[in-house]
Design brief:
14% helix; mainly beta; 201 residues; single chain; ten-stranded antiparallel β-sheet; elongated; Porin
Length: 201
């Protein structure tokens, strides 16, 4: 009988603990995207790492890295305005000894709106960007350098998961459009982006 009572007591304590944790998590949800919340975010798209490519029959190795730090402030519940500074580094090593590299930085004001009151929050967003880029090409004929500017526009949608009140992860699919007038260059496409968020207040 005592064993049975102890078993029931253990079950009750376990259920009470689970309920307390659930209530705690649900109460934390409301503060995650509330007015006045300030977040820092670090993000990167899936187009990074190294790959083997071929230019005019010459094998080459392409190294690519990108990182997008940003700050977001919730001006009202669920609506955040932000500013980001995406960085991109790309270098190509050719087997014939030629090398090329392109480094860039962007300034990107943005707006993001989150939906729902659970730990999983779908979101939509828009971003405008101004980019400054520097390129360099080294060959047997010497060194050629160039710098240029372009503008970009981005629309994205995804989902964020808040692990705690102060820490969240997000993943989104965005449409990115870039235009550079001097080189008569345009680019657009769909890209996957993942991010890590930390609440500061």
């Amino acid at each position: 009988m005592n064993i049975h009572n102890n078993y029931l007591l253990t079950i009750r304590i376990l259920l009470a603990t689970i309920a307390a944790i659930a209530i705690s998590l649900s109460s934390n949800v409301f503060g995650q995207t509330s007015q006045g919340s300030l977040y820092v975010r670090g993000g990167s798209n899936m187009n990074m790492g190294f790959s083997k490519i071929k230019y005019d029959g010459v094998e080459a190795t392409n190294l690519n890295f990108n990182f997008s730090p940003s700050v977001r402030y919730f001006v009202i519940d669920n609506l955040a305005l932000g500013i980001g500074f995406p960085l991109s580094f790309n270098k190509i090593y050719r087997e014939d000894g030629n090398e090329s590299s392109t480094n860039s930085i962007r300034i990107t004001p943005s707006a993001v709106y989150f939906f729902g009151e659970s730990n999983f929050k779908p979101f939509i967003g828009a971003e405008f960007g101004y980019q400054k880029a520097y390129s360099k090409f080294t060959s047997g004929n010497g060194l050629n350098t160039n710098d240029y500017e372009n503008i970009s526009f981005r629309l994205d949608a995804g989902v964020a998961y808040f692990i705690t009140e102060r820490i969240g992860l997000d993943m989104g699919l965005y449409y990115d459009y870039n235009k550079q007038n001097e080189l008569n260059y345009k680019q657009s496409g769909m890209i996957i982006d993942v991010g890590f968020n930390i609440k500061l207040n």
